[in-house]
């Protein structure tokens, strides 16, 4: 739950990668701070809640919660070196939203 009294400042950057039917969109989202539920709260605040995220106003979906980490970058906890991980979209997403299959590098 969002608290205006106890909440801390946070920043999330996003860009639209592609649009789908019914106003859906694929976004690249980068949280610049690390607050609980930050991405979910910010997208709901701008009127673009995540599919399947009924807590923050997203449309219910039987198979998908529309938050996926395509790429994660972080400092290794022991070496301090930058490491990056990538993951393809889950197959269930492509089944539920076939329009995603035509987007390059997804």
What structural keywords apply?
2 helices, alpha+beta, 106 residues, 24% strand, 4 strands, globular, single chain, two-stranded antiparallel ribbon
Descriptive report:
- It is a single chain.
- The chain is an alpha+beta fold and about 110 residues long.
- Helix content is about 15%, strand content about 25%.
- The chain contains 2 helices and 4 strands; from the N terminus they run ββαββα.
- It has helices spanning about 40-45, 90-95; strands at about 10-20, 25-30, 70-75, 80-85.
- The strands form 2 sheets. Strands 1-2 form a two-stranded antiparallel sheet.
- Strand 3 and strand 4 form a beta hairpin.
- The N and C termini lie far apart (about 30 Å).
- The relative contact order is 0.15.
Helix content: 10-25%
The side-by-side strand order for the widest beta sheet comes to 1-2
Distance between the termini: 31 Å
Q: What is the typical, i.e. mean, pLDDT?
A: 89
**What is Rg?**
15 Å
Largest sheet: 2 strands, antiparallel
What general outline do the C-alpha atoms trace?
globular
Order of helices and strands: EEHEEH
How many β-strand stretches? 4
